[in-house]
Amino acid sequence: MLRRFAAASRSGAKLVAPLGCLVSRQKHTLPDLPYDYGALEPHINAEIMQLHHSKHHATYVNNLNVAEEKYKEALAKGDVTTQVSLQPALKFNGGGHINHTIFWTNLSPNGGGEPKGELMEAIKRDFGSFANFKEKLTAVSVGVQGSGWGWLGYNKEQGRLQIAACANQDPLQGTTGLIPLLGIDVWEHAYYLQYKNVRPDYLKAIWNVINWENVSSRYATCKK
What we know:
Layout: H1 2-11, H2 46-77, H3 80-85, H4 87-106, H5 117-127, H6 130-142, E1 148-155, E2 160-167, H7 172-176, E3 179-185, H8 192-195, H9 199-206, H10 212-222
Antiparallel strand pairs: 1-2, 1-3
C-alpha cells in the first residue's frame, strides 16, 4: 500500500478516483514504518512517532475507507448530492493518507546532511544553494497558519523545483499540481509532545532525519 500511494503521488493521480474505480477497489491499509518508532530519536521521540503513525494516520485511513464506501453507495444510487457532500471527507482523509505515506519514507534514522547528484544540482539551480533552499522551506513551514504542510515539489511543466505550503491535509499534487518530493508535517501532533508550541525547534531538528535518498529517488522518477 505504501508503494501504491507513493507511486500515485508521483505519477499525477488525482485525489478522488474516477467514478467507476470505486466499485471494485480494495480497502486502504496503514503502511508499516520502515524503522522502529524510536529510531528517529533524539530528533523525534518514540511517543510522538507511535501516536502519529498508529493513531493519527490510522484514523485517516479508517475514515477514508468509510467515506469511499458511502461514496460507492451514493454512486450506485445516482445520489449526486451525497457524492458532492462527501468530497471534503475524501479530500481531508485521502490527503492525510497520501501525505503521511510520503512523510514516513522522507524520514530515516540514517538521514540528515545534504542530498547528492542530480537533486543537489537542481536545488542549487533553482534556489542558489542548499542553505538557501533549507532556509526557504523552513520559513514556509514555520509560517503555515494553524495546521498544514511545507513541501518541496517538482513542477513538471516548468521542469523545476518549487516550495509550497498546503493547509490542513490538502495533498500537494491535488492542490497545486506539483509532484511531492519532500513533505514536512507541521500539525502540532507531529511535534507538540517534544517541542511544545515551538515549531521552529522541531523544524531545526527534522533536517537531521531527512532521507535524501528517498527524496532523490522521487525526483528521478518524476523526471521520467
